[in-house]
Amino acid sequence: MKKYYIGLILLFTLLDSYAQEIQDNELDKLSLRYAKSSFDEFINLLSLPNDAHFPNDIKKNIQWCESAFANRGFITKKLTTGGIPLILANKNYKNAKKTVLVYLQVDGQPVDTTKWFQENPYKATLKELDAAKKWNTIPITKLEGDINPDWRIFARSASDAKGPVMMFLKAMDIINDFKQEPNYNIKVILDFEEEISSPRLPKAVIDYKEELASDMLVIFDGPRHISNQPTLTYGARGITRLSLEVFGPRAPQHSGHYGNYVPNPALKLSQLLASMMQDDGRVAIPGWYDGIEISPEIKKILREVPDDEKTIRNKLGIASIDNIAETYQESIQYPSLGILGLRSGWTGNETRTIIPSSAIAEMNIRLVKETSAQRMVDLVKQHIIKEGYHIVDSLPTEKERMEYPKIVRFNYNIAYDAFRTDFDTEIGRWLRKAMNRAFGSAPVQIRTGGGSIPISPFVNTLNIPAVIVPTVNKDNNQHSPNENIRLGNYIDGIKTVTAILTQEL
Amino acid sequence: MKKYYIGLILLFTLLDSYAQEIQDNELDKLSLRYAKSSFDEFINLLSLPNDAHFPNDIKKNIQWCESAFANRGFITKKLTTGGIPLILANKNYKNAKKTVLVYLQVDGQPVDTTKWFQENPYKATLKELDAAKKWNTIPITKLEGDINPDWRIFARSASDAKGPVMMFLKAMDIINDFKQEPNYNIKVILDFEEEISSPRLPKAVIDYKEELASDMLVIFDGPRHISNQPTLTYGARGITRLSLEVFGPRAPQHSGHYGNYVPNPALKLSQLLASMMQDDGRVAIPGWYDGIEISPEIKKILREVPDDEKTIRNKLGIASIDNIAETYQESIQYPSLGILGLRSGWTGNETRTIIPSSAIAEMNIRLVKETSAQRMVDLVKQHIIKEGYHIVDSLPTEKERMEYPKIVRFNYNIAYDAFRTDFDTEIGRWLRKAMNRAFGSAPVQIRTGGGSIPISPFVNTLNIPAVIVPTVNKDNNQHSPNENIRLGNYIDGIKTVTAILTQEL
C-alpha cells in the first residue's frame, strides 16, 4: 500500500505540468480510486427522485447534470421539446477528426415504496449478502475503507441508469486529470424521459439534427451479459406499449345476483389474452414472426455467447422457458408480446364479491429490426377485431354498451423501433479494441439486446451506427423494487469508459 | 293534514291505556311517520364503520345493537364464537305457540373511499336524481320535511343490511307503541360477519342449537325483485370463495430482457381462466351442471316473475347475457363460477415494463341446492390439475419452482351451501298473507335468489324452513361504492315488517 501512495503522490506532482499517458495496467487502480472519490457525488445524484411522471423532480436532475458536465469542461445546452428538455453537452478536442455521440439516461422507473426493503428508494443503501443469501444493510461509511466488489448500492436508478452516468463523469475526470485528449469530439445527449418511452425524442432528433450530427453513437446503458463478462451489444429491441380494457356492466354488480347472467369482463379479457398466445408462449396472432430468418451463420454467433441457461433459469426461479427458439440469444431476435399487468375488481383482503365493471391488461410489444411497430400494432388490433370486439379509444358510449356484446378500449403508444448494427464496422472494431485493452480479452458480443432504448431515432434520423456498452450487473432488479448496482461492476464501468475515451478512433 | 294530527293526538292518548288494533289502511301513514322518526337513529347506525376485517369497529356496532334491541324490550345475549360474537335477542309473548327466528346482518362490505362520490361512506348523504340522471347531494335536514320516496340515503350498508335492521327496529316500535302482541315468540340472530362469509356461524348454530331452536326462519335482507314490487324469496344460492395465484419468475423481470423467454404468469392465469369457461359464459368444467333439472312446471313459475329483461340489461349497461338459461330467474337456478378480481404487476400510471412474478385471480362459486360446495371445489381443482398445474396452498418452495413449469396457489373457503324452501308451506302461506294485507296484492315469488346469505346452517342444523323478505331497491350498489337505499323502499320496508309482526301465525 505504501508504494502505491508514493506512486500516487508522484503522479499528482506530474499531473499539473504535462499530459501523462495512462498505461493499460494502471486502469484497474485508477478506476478503483476514482470510484471511491465518486461516492458522495453518486449518492447525491441518486437522492434526486427521477420519475419522469413528475417533471418538477426531473428539473433537479437536469440542474444536477448541467452542473456536473460543466464541471468536466462540457458546454451544455437545453434542447427544448415542449415538455421535459433534452440536454446536449459538447466537448471538442483539437486533434479531433470525428465526433462520437454518447447517449445517457437519467430518469428512472416509478417506485412502489411498499415493496422496497429500505425506507427510501432514493436514499442509497449499502448492502452485503449473508450466508443465507439475504441482503443486509451495512453502514454507508464502509465505502470509505476497503471495498468488497460484491457489495451493492441499492437505490432507484443505481443501475438504470444513473450508475452509467456517474461512470462516464468519473472517466472524464480521469482523462481530464491526466490531460488525455481523445482524437474525436464528444457530444453527450442526456435523456430525462427514457422510462416513459422518450415521447419527445424522435421529433427532437429531427429538430436538432445539426446539433446532434456525429459519426457514431455509443450508449452507456443496460446490464452486461449474465456471465457478468465485459459486453458489447450491437442492437436493441424496440418497444410499443398497449393498454386494453374490456368493459362489463356499467358499475360492478353483485356476483350472486348476476353471476350466470352478466358477462364477466375479467373472463372476457382472460379469453382475449389467451387467444393471442399459445400455451407454449408463442404468439398465436398470424403474421407475428413473418420476415425474420435466423441463418445458420447467425445462429452460430448467437451460440457463442456464453449463456449458461440452466443458471439463468435457476436465478429466475423458472422450470421451463417459452418455446420461441433454441437459445436465449435467439429468442431475443424475435418480437415478443407480453402482459405487464392485470387489474380488475379487487383482490386479497380487499376482495369484493362482485362482477367487475371492467378488466385492464397493460401489455408491450418488444420489436426487432425486421418488425416495424405500426405493423405489429395493426396485427394485434386485427386479431382483437377478429375475436368479435368493438374497439373504442376511451369509455364506450351508452349506445355502444347496448349495441356491442364485446367492447375493448385499445390504446397504444409506439415508443421506438428496434435497431441493429453489423458486427464488422468502424464503431465495432474501435470499441472491441478498447475493451480488449481494458480486460485483456474479447468482450461477449450480443447481436440484439432484449431491452429497449430510444436509439432508433438517432440511427434512422442521423444515419449513424450505434453500439451499446453495457456495464451493470444483470441481476440489478432494474424496473423492479430493490434496484441495485454491484460495486465491482461500477468500478469496471469506470474502467470501461476510460478505456474507450483513451482509445484512438 | 289537520285532521291527521288530531287523529294522531287521539291515538297517543289512547295508546297508554290499551292495545289499539292497527288497521291495514293505516299501515302507510304509520310506516312513513315511524320512518321519519327513525332517521337520527339510522344515520347514527350508519356512522359506525362495519367492515368485519376490523373487529374493533364491529364492537361499536355490537354495543349499538345490544342497546337498540334492549330498548325495544328484547333480552340480548352474546353468543361467543372465539371471534366476533353473534347476538341473540329474545322477546317472548304470552299467547305465543310458536317461535320465529329472525336473521339480520349488521356488518358491511369494505369501502374504497376513492371510488365514492362523497367524502365519507359512513356519513349518510341524502341525494336526489336530477334531469341529467346525476345524483346530487341535498341537505340531510330535508328528511325533516316532506319526503320524496325517490330520494336516497347513500352510505355503506344503507341497504346491505343496516337498512333492514332499522326497519325491523321501527316495526317493533310500532307494535310496542300500539301494544300489539304477536302470537309467536321472536328470536333475532344478529350476524356481524356476513360480508366475510360468516366463518364462525355454522359451528355457532350447532353450539347454540337449543338457544336458537325455533319453528321457522325469516330473513330481512337483500333487494326486492327488480320491478321493485313486494317480494318473497324462498331460497338463496350458497357461496364458496376461491383464490388462485399463478407463479412466474421469483421476482418481476424486465420484459425486454426476458420477453420470449420467461413464461408470463399473467398469460398463464388468463389461459387457465379461459380454459374454465366457454366464450358464451357457460362453465366448461365437466360435471358442473350435473344434477340440476328444471321441470316445465318450475320453468312456468320462474316465468311468472315479472322480469323485464330488456330493462335489466339497460340498467346494467350490457348488450348480451351469459348463455346459461332462457330467463334471468332460470339462470340463477344453476351454480355460477365467477372472477371477482384480477391482479398482476402494475397498471395505469404505475405500469412497469416487466414480466410479473405472479398473477392472482379471486373467484367465487355461487352454489344451488343441488350442488354441494365441496363437490364443486373438487371439480375446479381437478380441472386445474388436468391443465397441467402443480397445486400449492401457499408460496412454492424453491424445489417446486425448479421442478414444475406450471404452479398455482389454490385456496378455497366454503362459506355456506344453498337453501331452498318449497312454496307451499306454513311459513310461505303466513308471509304471503301479511304481504297481501300490506300491499293489497300477491308478492313476486322468487324460487332462488342469486345472492348468498348464511342461512343453510340454520336450515340444516335447526331443521327449519326459511324464507327471505327482501325490501331494498335492487339498484342499491350493494357490494360496490356508492351503496344507497331508496327512501320509498325504506318506508315500505317498515310497513312490510309491521305487517308480518301483526300477522297471526
From TrEMBL, chains A, B:
Signal peptide feature range: none
Keywords for this protein: Hydrolase, Metal-binding, Protease
Residue ranges of every copy of the Peptidase M20 dimerisation domain listed in the record: 235-388
A Pfam family assignment: Peptidase_M20
Protein name according to UniProt: M20/M25/M40 family metallo-hydrolase
